[in-house]
Amino acid sequence: MPWQGTRDPYRIWLSEIMLQQTQVAAVIPYYARFLARFPDIAALAGASEDQVLQLWSGLGYYARGRNLLRAARQVVNAGKFPDTVEEIHALPGVGPSTAAAIAAFAFGRRAAILDGNVKRVLARCFGIEDEKAQWVLAAKLLPACGLETYTQALMDIGATVCTRTQPACERCPVARDCVARRDDRIDTLPAARKRKPLPLKRSTWLVLLHQGSVLLERRPSMGLWGGLWVFPERLLGDVRSFCRREFSCEISQAKKLPVIEHGFTHFRLNIQPIHCSVRKILPHAEAPGRIWLDVDDAMRAAVPAPVKKLLLELSGRK
Question: So what's the pLDDT on residue 318?
């Protein structure tokens, strides 16, 4: 992986944050683009939130990008990257397992990790599912030397061998000692969590287009898609009168586009886009937090994946 074989805490920290709840294949191109734009932590600390979110666009879980920027500024103000698990854990967006991984890989600290892959390996190998017991076990298993190699290997076993489904037990270096394999419990360890049906939420997007430009508004920093640019998301009353009153736009035609379905961790979102052809933009159409952008420029802005997908469709691209 491009983030392996280095002691640079910035690169290790960046990769660990990007890998939270995201697959390796998706992270690699984002990691490369991020480093090309912000080669060190000082460059990142000097960036704006919009610049960071623009590069993060499409990777999801955008609070990670905002926390990354906050943490970079803290580190630069402190004068150096923290080198203990406790200090790293205190950075915004860094949990205990992420802090341990950074401390181990960057500074050789003796620290146990417990990410999702490692939890699965320990649950199957030792038949232990309780998280507190797993933390104790993970600490006991730390070797006297070769800590970085051991930590990386443990993560890699979970990611490539002891996978959630169809694990490659024939390639596993600890198959002989595996409780799940011995007791024929590979499919039940760890036990699947009961998933509640995700609630459905609905939203309306007003896609205002005028001579190749589109109107976007910025979401509040906190909450869903915080800090990103999206289409206006509310409609009160008739489309034409609302757009004239709210956006100082005269609409010649408005039609519904196919509904967009987008899934989040805790809910599903159904979006009804309404394509609004703008005949005329009245004076004072722009307001704080809103901007008219050429469609091509909008696709390069800090927009969430569903917005970028719709912009691509509007531009006739695939």
Answer: 40
Give the model's confidence band at 199: pLDDT under 50 very low, under 70 low, under 90 confident, else very high: very high
Average pLDDT over residues 34-59: 96
Whether 286 sits among the annotated catalytic residues: the reply is no
Residue 54 pLDDT class (50, 70, 90 cuts)? very high
| Catalytic residue of the set 16, 86, 170, 313 | 16
Q: What is the mean pLDDT of residues 32-44?
A: 98
Phi-psi region of 127 (alpha: psi -120 to 50; beta: other; left: phi over 0): left
Question: Quick one: fold of 9-182?
Answer: Endonuclease III; domain 1 (1.10.340)
Is the pLDDT higher at 193 or at 253? 253
CATH assignment of 200-314, among 3.40.50.300, 3.10.350.10, 3.90.79.10, 3.40.630.30: 3.90.79.10
